[in-house]
Input
Amino acid sequence: MAEEITSKKLYSRTFTRNMVLIVVVVSFVPMLLVSGMILHQYSISYNEKLYAHLTEVVHRHAQDIDNFLNERLNNLQFLLDSCKDEALLDESVLQERLFQLQQKYEGEFEDLGVINKNGVQVAYAGRFSLGKAEYSDTKWFQEAFEKPYYISDVFLGLRSRPHFIVAVKSFYQGSYYLLRSTINFEIFNSLAENLRIGKTGFAFILNRDGKFQTKPHYDMLTSNKSYMDFIKAGKKAKHGIYIGEIQATSGFNQAIYLAALLKNEDWILVYQQEKQEAFSDLIRTQIVAAVILLLGALLIVIMNVLLFHKVISHMTEVDREKEMMNRQIIETGKLASVGRLAAGTAHEINNPVAIMVQEAGWIADLLEEEEFQDGKNLEEIHRALKQIGNQGKRCKEITHKLLSFARTSDTQIQDLQINEIIKEVVAISDKASYTGISINTHLDENIPLIYGSQTEIQQVLLNLINNALYALKKKGGKIDITTRLAGRYVLVIVEDDGPGIPEANLGRIFDPFFTTKPVGEGNGLGLSICFGIIQRMGGYINVHSTVDVGTRFEIRLPLQKPEALKLDEQPAETSVNPGE
Amino acid sequence: MPESQNADGKKIKVLLVDDEIRFVEVLFKRLSKRNIDVTKTFSGTEGIQALRKVDFDVAILDLKMEDMDGLEVLKVFKKMYPKIEVIILTGHESEQTAQEGMKNGAFAYLTKPCDFEDLFDTIRKATAD
Output
């Protein structure tokens, strides 16, 4: 028995583990694959969209800036074209023009100046007191004079303030002059600054050498010089914009950048943003997805373990029931074969007994002869011979009962009169081997038929009676069997006045394998089989017991045909509800 | 010892048919002491052979025999000599077999082990008509 339970435990533990593993793996793999694939696609999509968007934005900004610069140039050009050149040498005209420009373009033109080919400013209008400044040895003048128009880098000029110069060359009276204007740095700076996204997304303009043209908003850049190379190394996207990444270094996080070339590739508009911020939406989505996956995975594992435990315990239960059923079938079969065996034996015994009895009779016949009439012990011999005859009759009765019982062992389901079965079972009960025990029956002859298997009913009754006999073995006592009608059930009561069953055990006596008998004297299956039989018949069995007073088993068996109860045979007592 | 005679005043002729040898022997002795002409046979076949030679008044036939089914023997007996009265002995308590026997013309049935006096009375009743 112990081995069976252990192997079942093992079977269920390994089994559970394996099944759980299989299901978990089978659930995870597609889940991970699908999520992974979708997430990957989404990431790629997002990436593309983000960069596409930023590219457009940077491009527009670059265009705006370029437009701004070109507009300034055009303004000056127009100025030159629209008035006689000598007029510009007149400072009042210059002043007037400046004023017009400043009106039209709020605060962008700070001053106007005309510089001759020698670098001398011959006319000036503006608020800075420059007068006849000399630019001959400034780099910008040298550069500007060589081109039709010129935009300088931002630099700290004579006035020690950041500004940049826009200049247009014109030919007048045989000589070249530069019409120069200082452009408000702030306004220009803000153009670049306008490009701000989030907390770490900002733009700035550098010249070829990596020098800032606009105020760097964020003090986070690495060596500027490398920018140009850095940028050239980036991927070229739409509108000729370069895209790349700056690796994280100490103090600086990883960032993405987009760079657009301005001003004929003299300047670069760089937009930079911390990668984490740029991709914040994506990162958030990825985190959410990961959390969901994790929770999902956890849930799957937990549910599986729970589910399988449930399945296993159910299976174990089913196995147990099956075991019970098998045992019961075996027990029933045993009963049937014992019955047949007994019948065969009984039948065979009849012949020798018959012979014995007749031989004794023959002896008695012979004693009738004259020669024996004076025998001393004649009476005694006759008595003894009679006794042989009586015992032979007794043998006959015993075998008769046994054969009767065996003959009626029928597993078919049919209408039965339970009183008959009780009488038969009592007749063959083993009471001969127990002294001091009496079995009394109080059977109501008017109870209707029940519907069931004779063998099974015999089994139940035998079991209960044998249990009672076992209980009364030591001190003797009496067993009472009563039958009567109770509502829609036939009530059979088997009670004894024996030692009773302790409260603690009462709840377990119908459990399979529960027994208080010593090892080898019982397997604890009898009552559980009885319980099963009665339950399947649609009946009820319960037990009442008090220690040192007695035990009472009550069985209620349903009537198959309630209409069989005739009208004039209504039971005298009120109906008893089952389960009481 | 009560004696008996048949209607003609002659001894009653009884045929025993049973494969339990000892049983037949003791019955033979006891019946003979009561002045009955007993013939012993130990199988259905032997019984039939005996009936060919002699018209018995009564046959005592065991239903459960090795060589032939007792019922078969009964039918044959009744065919051979319808006047014969057959008392069948059944070992098992099967009502059905006994009824079968009665239907096939047996006079009476007794169960083994049987009381000798009952048997003797039955023989006398059988020969009374």
Q: What stands out?
A: The two ends of chain B are 23 Å apart (CA to CA).
